[in-house]
Amino acid sequence: MPGAAFLSGERVTLRTVEEEDLDLLNRNVNDPRVRRPLTSADPANSEQTREFFEEVVSGDDSVNLLICVDDGDEPEPVGDIVLFKIQDRRRWAEIAISIAPEHWGNGYATEASELLVDYAFSERNLHRLQTRVIEPNDASARIWEKLGFTLEGTLRENQYYEGEYVGTRYYGLLEDEWRQ
Questions:
Q1: Residue range 145-165: mean pLDDT, rounded
Q2: Binning pLDDT at 50, 70 and 90, where does residue 134 land?
Q3: CA 48 → CA 22, 38, 54, 56, 61, distances in Å?
Q4: EC annotation (predicted)?
Q5: Which one of 27, 37, 65, 155 has the fewest CB atoms closer than 10 angstroms to its CB?
């Protein structure tokens, strides 16, 4: 059973990541369809995923949440979302998300992202959020653009993806832009 509900939307709830959720996180990071478009994910075995959970997910430097679909008796985990590199003094952080491929195209990523963005600005009192998307990942770019993020620049050919070098797009959103 996923952890306690932290943020709730119409169709998804963001819940705390518990030890029993590590299998889903491990499957996602090792699925080439999920891993390749991420800008910083390497394959991980179960022990590495457990270490990540103990050192990062359970730590104070990030907000790691499980994305669950609430369409039945028990919430179904479909991915995870994280607010990381949180700089409280500078009031900014980075946001990233991954969804299991069988749940792509249902709007879960957009709804989960909207919940966490609102939390970051409303409850964490952040001033700025940023995210990264590799160039071939247009679906992810659309999520951030839909939420009002601005393309701030592209690092050219800094990632190797499916046999070629591609760039990484950097998106940013300021608190006052979110509130408009």
A1: 95
A2: very high
A3: 10, 17, 10, 11, 19
A4: 2.3.-.-
A5: 27
